[in-house]
Structure formats: C-alpha cells, structure tokens
Amino acid sequence: MAPKTPPSLPLYEVKYRNNIISRGIELFILFLLFSLLAYRFFYLKYHGFQWLLALICESWFTFLWIIIVSTKWSQVEPKTYPQRLLERISAFPAVDMFVTTADPVLEPPLITVNTVLSLLAVDYPANKLACYVSDDGASIVTYYSLVEASKFAKHWVPFCKKYNIALRAPFRYFSGNSSSPPQDSSLEFQQEWKRMKDEYKQLCEKIEEASTQEPEACDFPGDFAVFSSIDPKNHPSIIKVIWENKESVDDGVPHLVYISREKRPQHPHHAKAGAMNVLIRVSGVMTNAPFMLNVDCDMYAHNPQVVLHAMCYFLGAKDEKDCAFVQFPQLFYDGLKEDPYGNQLKILHEYLGRGMSGIQGPFYQGSGCFHRRKVIYGLSPHDKITSGELQDEYLQKTYGKSQKLLASVAKTLSGGSNIIEQFNSVSVSSSVEIAHQVGSCGFEFGTGWGQKFGLLYGTPTEDILTGIYIHSRGWKSAYCLPDPPAFLGCAPSTGPTSMIQQKRWSTGLFEILFHSKSPIIGTLFGKLQLRQCMAYLHVLLWSMRSIFEVCYAILPAYCLITNSSLLPKINESSMLIPTSIFIIYNLYGLSEYVRANEPIEAWLNNQKMSRINAITAWLFGFGSATIKLLGLSETIFEVTKKDQDDTNSDFGRFTFDDSPIFVPGTTILLLNLSAMFIGLLDFKKENIEWGLGEVICTMWVVFIFWTFLKGLLAKGKYGIPTPTILKSGALALLIVHLFQIYQ
Ligand SMILES: O=c1ccn([C@@H]2O[C@H](COP(=O)(O)OP(=O)(O)O[C@H]3O[C@H](CO)[C@@H](O)[C@H](O)[C@H]3O)[C@@H](O)[C@H]2O)c(=O)[nH]1
Ligand SMILES: [Mn+2]
C-alpha cells in the first residue's frame, strides 16, 4: 500500500499562470486601438460617412478588447489530487448523474448508451451513484437500448474495474484497429477482452436492428407497451427503473432510471432546462444525492476518475462558497486537428476559460458539470435556513406539491455541509409513483422551478443563465482540468449543423441580457463581480457583434466601389497604426495557438470561422432574438445532430445546404469580389481616393470567405446551392447600386 499522504497536503491547488508578456502585448494592442480611435476622431471632419462608421465599429472592437484583456488577466493552472482523496476518505458522498437526450434520430441511442456505460463504470463506489436518463424523444428504441445496455453493464463494469481500463465507453475502447487485445497482457485478460468485444458487438447489432425496424413492427413485450403509438409531444410521463442496485453493493452496477417527462402541446416544455428540472426532482424523490453531475447524451466520461476529481474540490474547499459547481471544459473527440469548423473551442477554454476561473469561476457549460444540489435549490452561500422556510406551506408554494419531494428538499436545505448523510435509504423502485407525479407537466405551475431555482427558463442557453444566477448569489465555481480530459463529446461536423448551433447559442445568449437575472442586474444588485460580468458580456454580445462585423466587412468594398478612402495612404506615417494592429493582433493570436500546441492551420481556420460565424450565424441569432424579444415568436431549441461515425473520408470539408443562413456570407463575398473588379476597372483613372490598404482589406475579406468561394464553384453538398447564389448575387448587385447612388 502507498504511504498515507500527510493530511496537510491539499486535495486541489490553484496556481496562477505567469502571463506577464501576454499582458504586455494585450495592453500594447489596446494602446494601438486607442490611437486608431484618436486618429479617426481627429480626421473625422475631412471624411465621409464611411469614416464615422469605421469609428463606430472600431470603438466596439476596442470595447470587446478591453473585456478580453480583463478576462484573460489572471489565468489559473488548477490541479486536483484524487489519490490523496482516496487515501484520506472512507465515506464518499452520493452523486446523481443525469444524461439528457431528445431525439433518437439526431442523437443515435448507441451514443447515449455509451455515455451511460462510461458513467456506470466510473471509479467510485457504485452504491453512491445513480444514473438518470431523460428522453425527450419518448423513444422506444432509446429505452430498449438502455435496457440492453444495463445487461451488458453487468459484465462491462466489473471488467473495467478489474483491469483498470482507461477508456470506459466501449465504442471508443473497441474502436480503431484494436481487433485483438494487447499481446503483452495476461491470457485471462485476453479471453475476457474477446468476450467483452463480442458482447458489445451483439449489443450494437440489437440496437441497430431496433433502430432500423419501424417502431410498430417491434414486438417488444409487456414493459414496452407504453411506448406503442406514442406521440413524443403529447404523452404522460414514463418512468422506469431499468436497474436497481438493490443490495447496495459498492462494486456492483449503479441504479439506472429512464425518464420521459410528461409533454402536452399546451404546456411549454422549456427544452433542456425543463428536462433537467424533472431529472432534479425525480432524483430528489429517489436518491436525493447532494451532488449532481449533468452531461449531454454525447459526452462520455473519458477519464474514469472524474467523480473523484470533482470531489477533490467539493471536499477539499475550505469554504464551500468557493465551489458551487465544478465544471470540466467541453472537449470533443475525433475532431480534426485543423478544426475546420472552428467549433472545438480549445483556445476559448485555454485562455478565456482559465481567465474566468481566476475571477469568479468558469461558466456552467451545460455538460460535464457537477452541481451542489442545494445551490440548484436556490441557496446562497452560508444561508441560514429559518424554520419558517422549512414549513410545509412555504415549501409547497415554492417547490411544488409532493410530500416526498418536500421532505427531500427540506433535508437538502437544512443539511448544511453534512453531505454524507443525505443519501436516501428508501428503495428506488418504491418511488416510481411519486416520480410520475413530480415529472408531470403541471407540477411546476405556480412554483419557483425555472424562475427562482433549478435550471432557469427563458433562453435556449439555460446553462449560461443558470451559471450567472449562481455567481450573482456570491458563489464561485471551480474549473477542473484533469489529464486525460474528463469528458469528450461530439462537435458538429457539417457546415449547416455548426451554423445552427452557433445561431441557437447567439440567440439564447442575447436573450439573457434582457432577462431579469442578467449579469448587469447581477452586478448592480447582486454579488456578481464586475470583471465576471464583463466576461459574461463577452459571450452574451455575440449576436450584437454581427452588426459591426458585417459593416466592417462591407466598408473596404464600399470604398472601392465609391472611390473613397478608409485608411491612410501607404506612405503616410499614420498608416503605421492600422498596419501594426493587424500584424501584432494576428501574430499574437497565432502565438496563443502555438503555446497551446495547436497547429497553425487551426489558428487560420478559427480566424476564418469566427468571422464567418459572426457574419452569418450570429446575424441570424440577432434576428431571431429580436423577434423573440418583440414577442413575435418563441425561440426553439434545434437539437444538434450527433455523428456516430466520423471516419468518412471527406469529414472536414465545409458543407452547405439551402438554408438562408448562407445568404449573408455569400452576399458579402460577392460584394467584395465585385468591388475588386470595379476597383480594377478604375485603377488607371485619375483621382483615385483609395489605396493599397483598402485593396488588402477587400482581399482579406475574400480570403476569410475562401470556403464560400470554393462553395461557389463546387457541386453537391460542398457547393452553395444555386438559389442561394442567385439571391446573394441579386442582393450584392442591389448593394453596389445603392452605394453608387448614395455615395
Ligand atoms: O428539448 C430538448 C432539447 C435538448 N435536450 C438535450 O440537451 C442537450 C444539448 O443539446 P445539443 O443539441 O447537443 O446542443 P449543444 O449546442 O451541443 O449543447 C450545448 O449548449 C446547450 C445550450 O445551448 C447546453 O444546454 C448544452 O449542455 C451544451 O452542451 C442534449 O443532450 C439534448 O438531448 C433535451 O433534453 N431536450
Ligand atoms: Mn451537443
């Protein structure tokens, strides 16, 4: 046995990065930006409208840069020591693990099954874990797959623990070329490995078969009857205990519960937030663990010690206020290193994520996050619960009418920091009836769910809003970066899905600004720190950015078309300001990738994609958020398609479809191309106002939209559909014409 570590050693440490040089460069860029603004301001009277617009856009970019400098100022290097925890602690707190899925087609059940298996097999006493799957698709295939998976789990979980398997999601473990077990392993292991691989193959086949057959044709006996001819948008709640760890053995398989909450057309279901609140309540009446883990159906546990890592924070924190939730960054598997869609967010986590963690803590990212139940129930740090607040009447009004739920809420609220005791001892299956009650859609009516506690409603980015509200009450959150990474999910791998996701995010984030729990209100009236508020604004303003980015991408073209200027001439000394901003900003951005061991292509692709996202998807986000805020329509949660198999050879090449989301990008590209053409025609004329600066800017825009340029010429899914090209062409011509009239 390893020697016991002295109890004085901490369970986690948070050091700060030495980033003096980066700070210096960031401040220097800020100085240059201010110089540019000053230059614009003093020369405003000699120039036309385009100069004013440039000043406005550049003021906005400067404002964003201030936010970035502030957010990146103190970046953390967190470290957790699960080994010390194991040596020191004998009784572990319970954890309820939630998995949400919504659509068996966009989210193939096999993916959900793998996530569930990886969670059931984590290194943690099985009798302290329970896994709850919420299925908003009310799909018989998903349910059937989970039933089959639970049978497989009885072999898989012991196998993983016995041989300390590093990767516990079977589709990853058995993927690639591993057709035979490692040769240097014991004979016994090799045999078991083969058996597991066979069993997993059978599981896949069963799920495959169930997915391809028409649901009616499936002849599922008894248990499956409730699913027959079900309408996923209109059905009573279905709750099934698939597996119960009845003897409460610590090396068995944790409980597995299937939940499809009640849905009625006349009741808003609040998408993922609604699903999460049902999970919280159902688990409240069943196991009522003091901690809750939540993952999306595609985010499997990549590191079997995830729960231990999270516990290092929860149990190691001197003051529980420092740790309302523990967030692991959202990372993705099978992503191309060059990140063609710019959606792997690695650099975002690497600098902004670590930077926020140096203020009040990371965002709640919706997946890969451990929460304290009492924080989700609305408590503030060091809240003293008065007995009045535990009276039935008060609780009923606030948390809903279920005696059993109220008892469990009361236990959680009054539990203080005693987190070992709260675990329910009642059997899980005896609570199914009450679970139906708390899973019904009328249950929340008139209560505080989604308004004052739980996951908050009112935006499709419920995660960020909920996190803001937690930080506004004075809690901090913790960022945990174990190696290997804790969770891996799948990032959208086609142009359209990526755009839809960006649009949904930017819409939802913008709506938060107008919510009663917005970060501005949180800072003015709550305990949200100013710099944390600024960091939140950085993402909440995504869709607003589109306006300025669109203007800025049009301005150089405007100059070429109307023979006007935006930048100093190449031989003027003031040209140094924009040139050095351009060069230093880009080199600095590149250095961030190099320091994070990312390839240069990833930097280039991310540069391009952040402009493309801003100009296309975020613009649509701005539109749909505005429509929603004007009360003209509701935003809907469009679920992202998860790809099971990313091995198709052309994965990574940008794809298009006939969505209008591709119109603005194509228009801007065509506009800049026409501007170059017009500029070429005018080139020899006298009195040319524009110079090399404007030409380079136009070329830069064309370069940013290179994928679109290729899309103009390509066919099939790699090409921009002809109607989109025609619409964009007409729009571009119209704009050129307008420019020429109003110059
Ligand atoms: O009505 C719904 C809609 C979605 N989901 C689930 O929500 C999760 C996230 O949906 P997804 O389509 O994968 O969205 P992403 O944009 O990939 O999700 C990110 O962004 C969301 C906020 O927009 C967060 O909720 C997620 O946790 C975060 O991973 C998935 O497990 C879905 O099954 C539901 O349970 N019910
Ligand atoms: Mn997702």
From TrEMBL:
GO terms for biological process: cell wall organization; cellulose biosynthetic process; plant-type primary cell wall biogenesis. The active site is at 136, 463. It is a multi-pass membrane protein. Keywords: Cell wall biogenesis/degradation, Glycosyltransferase, Membrane, Transferase, Transmembrane, Transmembrane helix. One of its GO terms (cellular component) is plasma membrane. This is Cellulose synthase-like protein H1. It comes from Capsicum annuum. The keyword Transferase applies.
